[in-house]
Amino acid sequence: MDTQRPPAALRLRARRYRFVGPDLLDPRLHVALVVVTLQVLGQTFLHFDISIAQILVAVATCAVIECTITLRREHLIAWPSSALLTGNGVAFVLRIPGTRHGDWWSLRGGWIFAAVAAISLLSKYLIRVDGRPLFNPSNFGLVVCFLVLGSRRVDPLDFWWVRPGVGLTLALTVIIVGGVLLAWRVKMLGLIASFWTTYAAALGVLALRGHCITARWHIGPVCDGYFWWILVTSPEVLVFAFFMITDPKTAPRGRIARRVYGATIALVFVALAAPQRTEFATKVALLGALGLVCAARPLLERLLPEAGPEADRFGTLVGFGERVRDDGHRKSRSIAAARLRLVAVVAVAVVAYTAIVVGAGTPAATSGVTPVAAAPAVPAHCADTATIPTQPRPLATGAAPPTVNVRDAIDVATRIGLREATQIVRDVTNDLAIAAVAIEHRDAVLASSVARFPWLDNLISTICSATGPLVAATYHLTAATVIVAKRTTGQVFPEIDVELRGVVHETTFTRSNTPRRLADHARRYLNTLVVTKAGGHWLICGNRSDPRTAACVTTT
Fold first, then answer.
1. Under 8 Å CB-to-CB from 299, ≥6 apart: which residues?
2. Is 466 helix (H, G, I), strand (E, B) or coil?
């Protein structure tokens, strides 16, 4: 007697639809479990700026579309494993500026999550080559989203999530352990190793050229060795390596092709990242690199050995461990052809990478500071015979340094300790003293060495004005508190506030070639200045008490 239970079914109108539930051995459930775990950590320890409602919108959109397509095509109600993975992938990376951690049910930008999720899932059905999706679905939708909407309307998840601690340790453990187990199951360890080694080496070349980017989680530009270390150890890049490029349906099938595929993604990313100066553009370059290489995957599979044959072994292809025929002759013809194609592919990739990185990376090596921190030109009618200082900045002396305290914020990755805070206060004290000298001597060029806009614009306007007296201030500060202001949306430097207390002596001068002192006035001083780092110094760029210069406008 046959005791096997019939498959579950659901009757809608006059038609019977078979139901297929989730397969516990499906690798997609493995990936989904890791991503959901990271989402939970993001809502607890990591303080991700995304709401539960936004996540549900992306996941539900993909699930509804996939179930509808499956129902119409196969008359089947199936558990949407692939759709849930795609929706989770979109929600994991996509961010809407203005959404804050703790806004659990915010639907801010909900239509964007729904649209990106729909584009991602539909690409799997509409863009196909040889019966397979050409692009990784979530990667395709995210690249389209970031390129079309730009950094003012959307953001990717940051390269660096949080300061080292329990949350980051848990996240890295989940990513690495889950990623290695998955790669072993789907036989992708070689692909990941190829990507990672090439990625670290190529990125090292870019870092050695002095490449810098701005990032909202970092105070000042991320440059040189620190830039390399952040991107090599980034948990976001680890997720990309373990769970995005290893998609079996969009990765090549051959062993050699997979290794070349991984290395090519790394080279294309670094080549695309070389001219970029923001974290937003660099993250889009990473996702875009996968999209470009996916588009070239059919060509790679035709140029490189197919899965299974003799030539699809690295040792055989490079000349080690070749098998010998019974007649004593090697299978030289097919293997030699495969070697030539492999050499050609690698040579083209390396030459293209070198040309782009050397060419595009040169400006980064000479910039020293980001465009945000660069000083504006001094108006021609105001510039005197002085030149921009080439020596170290003049220092203020005489007054005893104020007592320094630090008030830190939890959502900025770089920590300001007492030593760094003392340096900030020392630089700001010098900035104020030098600004007073610049005002007294009407030296706009000197002023540009101690300030950045909008505070510099106001300072130069005061110096260059044709009428009215000039007021120069001397500060005797007793206390200073350095505050890491909460970061704003988009690719913006975190603002550092310096709250100053003490006494200010204001001296009024006539505006003439030989200034004459008109009056002196002393009063209590309590003010909060905004500073930014440029050229190794902390410079004043805003004044919280003045609406015209209340914040440093540094969006890129």
1. none
2. coil
Burial 368-400 (b: 16+ CB within 10 A, else e): ebbebbebeebeeebbeeeeeeeeebeebeeee
Token output for 201: 């080496």
- Annotated domain spans of the chain: 1-186, 188-320+332-369, 379-549
* Helix (H/G/I), strand (E/B), else coil: 394: coil
**Taking the C-alpha atoms of 259, 264, 270 and 271 in order, what is their torsion angle to the nearest 10 degrees?**
160
Angle at 417 between CA 413 and CA 422, to 5 degrees: 130
CATH class, domain 379-549, is: alpha beta
Residue type, 53: A
Give the number of other Cβ atoms within 10 Å of residue 319's Cβ. 10
Residue with tokens 């008490």, as numbered in its chain = 545
Residue type, 341: R
Grouping H, G, I as helix, E, B as strand and the rest as coil, residue 380 is coil
In b/e form, how buried is each residue of 511-530, taking b as 16+ CB within 10 angstroms? eeeebeeeeeeeeebeebbb
pLDDT at 364: 39
Q: How many of the other CB atoms lie within 10 Å of CB of 1?
A: 2
Backbone angle region of 319, left / alpha / beta, with phi > 0 → left and psi within -120 to 50 → alpha: left
What is residue 530's DSSP assignment? Answer: E
Contact by Cβ (8 Å): 378, 445: yes
Neighbouring residues of 337: CB distance < 8 A, sequence distance ≥ 6: none
pLDDT value for 450: 78
Give me the average pLDDT of each 10-residue run along the chain (556 residues). Answer: 53 67 80 93 91 96 93 82 93 92 91 97 94 95 96 91 88 95 91 94 90 83 90 95 94 88 93 91 96 93 71 51 44 57 63 60 39 47 44 55 80 73 90 82 77 76 71 86 70 77 84 69 88 79 76 51
Q: Please give the structure tokens belonging to residue 171.
A: 């996240």
Q: Is the pTM of this model over 0.90?
A: no
Average pLDDT over the chain, rounded to an integer = 80
Match 């490029």 to its residue by tokens: 245
| Identity at 11, one-letter amino acid code | R
Do residues 539 and 376 touch, judged by C-beta distance below 8 A? no
